[in-house]
Amino acid sequence: MDIKRNETPSWVESDNCQQCNKPFFWNFRMMFDTKTLGQRQHHCRNCGKAVCEACSPNRLTIPLMGFETAVRVCSICYALLKDKDRPSHAVLINVLHAVMSMDLDEMKKRMVTVGQDRVVKVWDVRELFSLKSEQ
After folding, report:
1. Confidence of residue 132 (pLDDT cuts 50, 70, 90)
2. What DSSP line would sit under the chain, residue for residue?
3. CB neighbours (10 Å) of residue 48?
4. Do residues 49 and 19 lie in contact, with contact meaning Cβ atoms separated by under 8 Å?
5. pTM summary value
6. Calpha distance 56→67 (Å, rounded)
7. Taking Cα atoms as reference points, which of 40, 35, 63, 64 lies closest to residue 51?
8. How many whole angstroms separate alpha carbon 75 and alpha carbon 20?
């Protein structure tokens, strides 16, 4: 793959949410001073900031960082990323049944699997062979 991936950010540690400043549940001093319950800490997968649930209610894919499925992002990053084009960079193959038997026909570039659920699936694996020849 010729796609340049971005490194995931380091997670920032904090005693308070870095957006709304609510205390996390281990920050007893601030919880007592503000007379509020502590929040659970989460991390934005895009910027790495420590945020509470209220400040990170959204999920997005971030393929350039390797997150092909939706992950937690803070409200600020969600606003920045939601309208940007984020095409997937992975080839996903849906094999949800437990494969009991498999046969590969290299000439036809097809694979047959038989699952524990007795479902027979025929897979077109030409793309996998083309990746092998590129290397």
Report:
1. low
2. --PPPPPPPPPPP-SB-TTT-PBBTT-HHHHHHHT-PPBPPEE-TTT--EE-STT--EEEEEGGGTEEEEEEE-HHHHHHHTTS-----S------SPEEEEEEETTTTEEEEEETT--EEEEE-HHHHHHHHH-
3. 16
4. yes
5. 0.61
6. 16
7. 40
8. 11
